[in-house]
Amino acid sequence: MIEAGFVAENSQAGVRAVVLKTQYETQGNGFQVEYFYRAHSGQDLPAHFHMWWEEKFEILAGSCTYVLDGKEYLAQAGDTITLPAKKPHIHPWNTGDEELHMIQTDTFEYSSPEAVIDTLNTIATQYGLARDGKVGSDGKPNPLQLAVSMQTLLKHGGYLAGLPPLAQRVIFGLLGRIGHVLGYHSSYPQYLDSVSS
């Protein structure tokens, strides 16, 4: 199980993540992760939204671009970005010439330790898959791996932007079942150990 101090790296996306708070420190009401993005590293996650939690990003160094409700914005050191529940968004990514250093704090409307565990495990697995060359050149996993991962995130109100939630539950439900039969999982034990920083 991931605990505070866990380190994950996605060399393809040029990002290192350090978990600062898990369900233990927040009583299941969210989590906190520190990120370091290399210059011009590009987007790490696709556009998505959460039904019942808010995300904040405190920009400590560097500059970035993010998307909220289909509009692109710029931010720099000293800024705090708030991404409200139910609003489609893309997390900040580095569009500057220096390393982007930021802290992400996710706050839930109610306690859900399982949501913290599943989300952190899924993210760590995506980083691990990228590190092992098991994603495409665009950084995305194959459709069955994505579907299995999305099945887990859908349980906690996390959806991709651009497709109605009901359609996602149907599509990812079907593909996810096929993925499970073929041996795919939303997380794998080998990716839940910290990598050296």
Question: Gist?
Answer:
The protein is of the alpha+beta class and 197 residues long.
What would you note in describing this structure?
The protein has one domain (7-191): Jelly Rolls. Helix content is 26%, strand content 33%. The chain is built from four helices and eleven strands, in the order E-E-H-E-E-E-E-E-E-E-E-H-H-E-H. A six-stranded antiparallel beta sheet has the order 1-2-3-10-5-8. Strands 7-6-9 form a three-stranded antiparallel beta sheet, with no helix packed on it. Strands 4-11 form a two-stranded antiparallel sheet. Strand 6 (63-68) and strand 7 form a beta hairpin. The chain is globular. The protein starts with 6 loop residues before the first strand and ends in a 16-residue tail after the last helix. The model has no long low-confidence stretch (mean pLDDT 94).
- Kindly estimate the percentage of residues that lie in beta strands according to DSSP: 25-35%
CATH topology: Jelly Rolls
- Cα end-to-end separation: 19 Å
Helix content: 25-40%
User: How many structural units, i.e. domains?
Assistant: 1
Please work out how many helical segments DSSP would assign. 4
Parts with pLDDT < 50 across at least 5 consecutive residues: none
The CATH superfamily label reads: Jelly Rolls
Bulk shape: globular
Q: Indicate the radius of gyration in whole angstroms.
A: 16 Å
- CATH architect. name: Sandwich
Derived structural class: alpha+beta
Order of helices and strands: EEHEEEEEEEEHHEH
Strand order in the largest sheet: 1-2-3-10-5-8
Assembly type: single chain
